Amino acid sequence: MEGSKSGMGIGQKVVQTQTLTPIQIQTIKLLELPLVELEQRIQKEIEENPVLEDPVETEMEENPQDRKKVSLSEVKDDSIPSYRLYVNNRGRDEDKPQYNTFSVKESFYQSLLNQLGYRRMDERRRTLANFMVCSLDSTGYLTRNISSLANDIYLRLGMETTEEELESILTEDIQQLDPVGVGARNTRECLLLQLRAKENRTPEVENAIKILDGYYEEFTKKHFEKIMSKLSITEDQIKDAYDEIRKLYLHPGGQVDDSYTDQTMQIVPDFILENEDGHLTVSLPKLKIPQIKVNRDYEKYVEKKQDSTKAEKEASSFVKTKLDSAKWFQEAIRRRQDTMQRTMNAIVNFQKEYFLDGDDTRLKPMVLRNIAEITGLDISTVSRVVNSKYVQTPFGIYPLKHFFSEGMVTDSGEEVSTREIKKILQQSVENEDKSNPLTDEELVDLLTGKGYQISRRTIAKYRSQLNIPIARMRREI
Questions:
Q1: Which pTM was predicted?
Q2: Under a CB-based contact definition with an 8 Å cutoff, are residues 443 and 387 in contact?
Q3: What is the mean pLDDT of residues 427-440?
Q4: Is position 82 within any domain?
Q5: Which residues pair with 271 in a beta bridge?
Q6: Edge-to-edge strands of the sheet including 271-276?
Q7: Structural contact between residues 282 and 344, judged by C-beta atoms closer than 8 angstroms
């Protein structure tokens, strides 16, 4: 025993490391893909691995004897078989789609670029306009100055331009797009763009323009008496003008949800939830690509060429590598489907009360760790399932991230979701006296009185996420 110990060597120690198998690596990669991308990935694997059969091509073979024979010349290199390079014009039973595609809000940027496509302009101006649209932030504002934008265009596109040219494109093209206010460089410009675009220029609209154009600072500070004096207007007139301004939106790019940003034009649900008399069931839509199969002829080829020439052994080794890869890929797909099903079932069971009727107030606090503990999966695995995946429910299509939120414990010991707290906060602001809006400190006291122990900093955070201005900006006359 002593000899054994000395043979280990001084300072040598055993370190345990976890090595992922090829199947585990494949599964992790496939879990990250939503349904449409998964189908594309499967099709790519079929095209690149010659031992996999394309289900459509297999169906097209009228005579089993016509199946492609395996030859040594075909498997010597890693090229794609020639028959995979031909176009297959046969459809996949188009009258019976495997799943439904749902239209959702078009990408904000794509909408603007599409509108630019209909405007008359030369190629140079269109290229510059497209670049400027893609430089807007997600709320529709151009936060970068024209000078730095011109420098960026030169560096990235190799095009020399001037501030005057970009200013012209901004005001004459981009700021003419829908929604009105897009391309504004600040809130004042955004509001003025909307007012000046109104077809019916009523006295109220004209006064609103005068206020924002000449007395914006006084307006933001709610110095209404000073504005009335400067413009020689009455209290009723300034109130009417204020009402016109209140109708405008501050973010032409739309409201950004605090849980996810919708940037897609078509959504294919990764799960389908059905409610049959209170019994909830979850299913995965069928893939457009049927189950892939390994060509048995290649397996027979490997078995037959074990005791052949050196060249045939090399070819056999190549085929065996491709067979292993194909089987790993098949198993990874099976594991992906199983992991997806387990995770969604856990989410539905955890949030059962919510999924019965879709009432947001029934959502319980839920984090990735909760689902990981239920399923026995790693948190990172659950995260991959949740990310960029959607579920079709009887009350709409939702990203899985919608069902996750932190929570807090009330005075009575009940755990509630932050979404519920936000809803109460929003209702409190909606019901406040607009001539004397609630400050953050008063909102803290209000929620504390309802049993929610919450800090002023958290109130400010939730208020910001709900796009609720500070009390001074909510004051109405």
A1: 0.50
A2: no
A3: 90
A4: no
A5: 391
A6: 279-283, 271-276, 390-393, 396-399
A7: yes
| CA–CA distance, 227 with 239 (Å, rounded to integer) | 11
Q: Which residues pair with 102 in a beta bridge?
A: 267
Q: Would you tell me the crossing angle of helices 203-214 and 235-246 to the nearest 10 degrees?
A: 80
In a domain, 260, yes or no: no
Spatial neighbors of 41 by CB under 8 A, at least 6 apart, are 30, 33
Q: Which of 350, 348, 344, 328 is nearest to 385 (CA)?
A: 344
205 token code pair: 């609209």
Cα 368 to the chain's mean position, in Å?
17
Q: Are residues 417 and 299 in the same domain?
A: no
Quote the mean pLDDT of the chain. Answer: 78
pLDDT attached to residue 337: 93
CB 224 within 8 A of CB 179: no
Give residue-wise pLDDT tens across range 158-210: 889 999 999 999 999 999 998 889 999 998 999 999 999 988 889 999 999 99
Q: Are residues 378 and 304 in the same domain?
A: yes
Element (H, E) at 294: strand 293-294
End-to-end CA distance of the chain: 92
- Whole-Å CA distances, 32 to 29, 267, 377, 386: 6, 16, 15, 9
Identify whether the C-beta of residue 357 lies closer than 8 Å to the C-beta of residue 395: yes
CA separation, residue 337 to residues 107, 376, 408, 445 (Å): 29, 16, 34, 48
Residues 452, 443 contacting (CB under 8 angstroms): no
Q: Are residues 288 and 411 in the same domain?
A: no
How large is the greatest C-alpha to C-alpha distance in the chain, in angstroms? 104
